[in-house]
Amino acid sequence: MTSAAFDLVLRNAVLATASDTYRADLGVRHGRIAQIGLDLPAGRQEIDVGGRVVTPGGIDAHCHLDQPMAPPVRLADDFLTGTRSAACGGTTTIIPFAAQQKGATLQAAIDDYHRRAHGKACVDYGFHLILTDPTPAVLDDELPRLIAAGYTSFKLYMTYESLRLSDRQILDVLDAVRRHGGMPMIHAENADCIAWLTERLEAAGRLAPRFHGWSRPALVEREGAHRAIAMAELVDVPVLLVHISGGQAVDQIREARAAGLNINAETCPQYLFLTAEDLGIDDSYHGARCVCSPPPRDAASQQQIWQGLADGLFQVFSSDHSPFNLHGEDGKTPGGAEVAFRHIPNGIPGIETRMPLLYSEGVLGGRISLNKFVELTSTGPARAYGLYPRKGTLAVGADADLVVWDERDFVLDNAHLHHAVDYTPYAGRRLRAWPGLTLLRGQVVWDGQTFTGTPGGGQFLPRGLPSLFPIGARAPGHRTWLQAALAS
Ligand code: DUC
Ligand code: ZN
Ligand code: ZN
Q1: Which end of the chain is more exposed for a tag (fewer CB within 10 A), N or C?
Q2: What is the pLDDT of residues 434-488, one digit of tens each?
Q3: Which residues carry this modification: N6-carboxylysine (predicted)?
Q4: For residue 382, how far is its CA from the centre of ligand 3 (angstroms)?
Q5: Which of 346, 348, 421 to mutate to test the pocket of ligand 1 (most atoms within 8 A of CB)?
Q6: Crossing angle, helix 218-235 and helix 167-180, to 10 degrees?
Q7: 387 in ligand 1 pocket by Cβ < 6 Å?
Q8: Which residue, by CA, sits nearest to atom 1 of ligand 1?
Q9: How far is CA 174 from the centre of its chain?
Q10: Atom nearest to 243 CA in ligand 1
Q11: How far apart are CA 178 and CA 454, in angstroms?
Q12: Nearest atom of ligand 1 to the alpha carbon of 346
């Protein structure tokens, strides 16, 4: 008896990577892509995909799962429900956040989040670290050790009282990253402007959810982005600005790139598909369902974000899945009450809808190419966060993380989704595509109807250093401001 050449062959596929689209069969052995070609020999399992598009599994590089909150508020998704939802929407790798508690080590955060993910995660995962307490011990001792152990990205907040760093602390973190490598991710909003506006709105009795948007105008993000870029320039490190919401911040990034700086950027579905009107056109509490930060903007901003996706401004398209229930006491009505906008938990669900929304409106809507879709949802995040080429592409030796796309029209309803959240902000939207199959390392985890993955079947991914192509090119012999000052 001859043994099959492959564990699995996907036949008659249109394979799409960030650079190419072509017809081929794809053979999988031991969870990895073993061969791509025409008329491959038989596999033990055969799937004829009938000419459908096959892309690399999605990488959602910005999502929040099981992150501790002040009771009674809690995130609705843990690592089981969140990764189940991810798989059903075509995402096979996630990078959620492990948040350092002030006064505690980074290692304690990592240990905690490994416990949370263990036995539950149904797709592969790594962890970004949220740095809230960058002491010398953390920066000089822990950080290099953790980078070597595969935790190579760090989120820094300029806002949120419990999380924010001062500019001085941000400079210290950027300097440590310059010495040891890694990717700083910056949440860029001006905290004092937000606090000042919030106090004045509250004093005037403007408490409804829609004032969340009024309290965080685009200029607050523009200023934060400008300051983050200036600090990155001073220290001379690449950074990645997360969840960019509109044109003013986009302009800051364009200007920085034109000056040769290595500034990377991420955006999210809420900045393409929601506007400030979704926070409410009157004082109804319904808008609480779309409260997130930065807030959704206007139609002109949506167009600038689409433009940035199409022309290479953005490297990463993530969900910022931060799931709170609309009803009950643990979510958008904390303790069961309608509260002033400043107390509404920030965040919306989106881990499952991220890829189908962009495929439907971006690819099938003619706004971005199929290859750009792959770059934004998979290859770019893999490069930015040290997963490439094991993840993020269709190539021999890469993990066989695959999405087979069904193109069909339907109206989205929360009942279609597999998260543990009681709503989706995209209910009622017409979609034109959804994954017909998702495979994680060669195993079907979503068959188009049913989740078929395994809790605990996801593997932890230690990550390498970023491998994005440098965007800005510094002149040879370039010196930082500090080096020039010391040499003067
Ligand atoms: N904003 C964030 O920065 N993170 C989670 C959700 C949100 O709205
Ligand atoms: Zn953020
Ligand atoms: Zn976030």
Answers
A1: N
A2: 999 999 999 999 999 999 999 999 999 999 999 986 655 566 678 888 888 899 9
A3: 155
A4: 18
A5: 346
A6: 50
A7: no
A8: 293
A9: 21
A10: 3
A11: 39
A12: 8
Domain ranges in the chain are 1-472
Mean pLDDT, residues 62-68: 97
Determine the 3-state secondary structure of 27 from DSSP.
Answer: strand
Look up tokens 């001073």; give the residue.
234
Report the distance separating Cα 89 and Cα 60, nearest Å: 11
Contact 276, 215 (CB under 8 A): no
Q: If you average pLDDT over residues 59-84, what whole number do you get?
A: 97
Q: How many CA atoms lie within 13 A of 242 on its CB side?
A: 25
pLDDT of residue 475: 66
Ligand nearest to the CA of 271: 1
Q: Name the residue of 62, 64, 97 to mutate for ligand 1: max ligand atoms within 8 A of Cβ.
A: 64
Cα(390)–Cα(136) distance, integer angstroms: 34
Helices then strands, counting H and E runs in the chain, come out as 15, 17
Residue 1 predicted with pLDDT over 50: no
Residues 222-236 have pLDDT tens digits of: 999 999 999 999 999
Third-level CATH fold of 1-472: TIM Barrel (3.20.20)
Report the amino acid identity of residue 47: I
Contact criterion met (CB below 8 Å) for 368 and 362: yes
Task: Give the distance (Å) from ligand 3 centre to CA of residue 242.
Answer: 8
Distance 47 CA to ligand 2 centre (A): 40
Query: Is residue 322 lining ligand 1, measured as CB closer than 6 Å?
Result: yes
- The pTM of this model reads 0.97
% of the chain at pLDDT higher than 70 = 98
Of the bound ligands, which one is closest to the alpha carbon of residue 188? 2
Per-residue pLDDT of 72-89, as tens digits, reads 999 999 999 999 999 999
Task: Give the relative orientation of helices 191-203 and 218-235 as an angle to the nearest 10 degrees.
Answer: 160
Q: 266: Cβ below 6 Å to ligand 1?
A: no
- Mean pLDDT in residue range 300-304: 98
Q: What is the mean pLDDT of the chain?
A: 96
**Percent of the chain at pLDDT above 90?**
95
Any atom of ligand 1 within 6 Å of the Cβ of 346: yes
For residues 435 and 20, what is the distance between their CA atoms, to the nearest angstrom? Answer: 20
CB 347 less than 6 A from any atom of ligand 1: yes
| Neighbour-count burial for 335-368, b at 16+ CB within 10 Å, e otherwise | eeeebbbbebbbbbbbbbbbbbbbbbbbbbeebb
